[in-house]
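Folds abound. Consider this:
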Amino acid sequence: MTVTIDKAIDILARRQEGQKTVEKQRQLQRRNTVTDSKADFQTMLRGADRIYTAFRISTDMQYIMKYSFNLHIRPFVTNVALSAKTSDTSLSVSGSTITPNPHYHDVQLEVEVSEHVFDTSTIRLAIQGVDITDAIIAEYGSFVNGYGYFPSQDTNFDVMRLLDYLPAWQQAIILSPGLKEIQITQNDTTLCECEISYYIKYNHVDRGGTE
């Protein structure tokens, strides 16, 4: 088959375009990587009317692949010092002299650890100020009711499945990079302790070994 000049130019052009496509894919593969952010049974800090913790999604994040968490809810715990008990010390008094002088007493403190049961059915959970409690109930049928693991010991709340129940501006807050604070609101009738296990997996630009 005779190859004309126009045909040859067309073949070379298509080959060059194909080479550009391959090189672009290679660059994207070199540029992108996947990062996991996770914690197992991380104790949430206590504030005046909430318990909370936080994680960070890097600012070069391109898209989130996995976003889930599990809660371990326990009764509220207090540590109370009940009494201070001193040991006996023998003293000898002769005139104005006390023996031994100075004298000491050993002090034994007794501390009681108590668990307090409250109603947990009305607690609310928010990620970076976005309350997702109603979305959880809509997707899973319930949120927290009592004590134990939620949704169960072997399953997690999938945040990506909750997005359909949220308006676009709330979705944007949850999916945006940066610091993400997770909090459970409480009052004097809904106190509890909580350990959270979370897992976030996202694609981001390859940093070449640097943060």
